[in-house]
Give the backbone structure.
Amino acid sequence: MRRSLPVSLLLALLLLVSLPALPVAADTNYTVQPGDTLWSIASEHDVTVETVVAANDITNPDYIFSGQVLTIPTTGGSAPASAPSAPPAAQPAPATPDPRNVSAGPGSILAKRMVVSYYGNPYSGLMGVLGQLSKDELVAALKRRAAQYEAASGRPVQPAIHFIATVAQASAGSDGMYRARMPLEVAQEYAQLAANNDMLFILDIQFGRSTAQAEIPPWLPLLKEPHVHLAIDPEFDMWGSEQPGADLGHMMAYEVNYASDYLSNLVAQYNLPNKMLIVHQFTASMLPDKQNIQTNPNVDLVIDMDGFGYSSLKIQHYDWYVRDQAPQFAGIKLFLEHDPDLMTAADVMGLTPPPDLVIYQ
């Protein structure tokens, strides 16, 4: 039975776009509406994504936003059958190697096996597949998906339930923090479901205007369990007057390092295997001082290439933020309903490097 939640849940899925240089003539203006993508706008106006991008001098290849006014050119033809390739000019500079980086310790999860997770929140099917399936369906689907990756990778694969535990909100709430924490007992239900089926459990936290120091410790009752791990989302880390959904967030290295240290201390205190720390990213601006993120032998640090779009663009962004910047462990998120040409397990394992974590939303 689907739950009913007395707060609004925010869904912010941002389309990955490219930046070719095609000079075209302008015609009409269009104001981007919630839920629009460049693909849907181009299709509605019978032009290509490339011509819309070029006509508007879009310099960020990652997303468009509600309220943005786009010029729709008079030429360009029908929408393309496949996404254009992204240009090298937009590629961010590789991160400078940090001598503080260390190898994963003997308790590492991802040094021994892959992890495949299903992401979402049980209160809303809009936030991901977790909210679209019953518990029995979720377990069965995850086991099937893990088997696909074992066949494609030759590695052991462990399924994981990926639960959005603190959800960014469009409204401030009583404390002005623009986030809502899910009931602990609901998270515990799904953590127990994972444990009962030899799966991992990932708590995903969206800070809103709050902080890592305020939002991570309340989940200690779960984080001290050996199968529970943590993800944090810079997209929803708001500074100053920024608001989720209206602004794209960003997270400084000190916040990531705080989360890593917190998890490392839990590993030492409770004699646990390593904790995974997953950091989502789909633009360079989301992690502005990424080179200062430190690794820890008690923590498996994963950079997850997030964002939906055509596989050619997802691969380009994976190359930018994972391959070229060499994080300790690699991750990618796939969108079951929003990736127009959903990558197969074989496609994913063909990436360089092959990801250690694959998230399905």
